[in-house]
Amino acid sequence: MRFFSSIIIILVILVLLTNNLVCISSTGEEDIVAVTGSEKYYLTTKEKEDLLIKARMGDGNAAFKLANYYEFIDSNRSEALIWLEKAAKNGHIVAQYNLAYFLSLSPDKKENEQAIYWFTQAANSGDVKAMVRLAQEYESGNILEGDLIKAKEWYQKAAFEKETSAIIKLIQFLYEGKGGSQDIVQAYAWILIAETVIPSSSVNGQIIANMKTELKGKLTKHDLQLADDEFKRLSLILNKK
Question: Do residues 133 and 19 lie in contact, with contact meaning Cβ atoms separated by under 8 Å?
Answer without folding.
Answer: yes
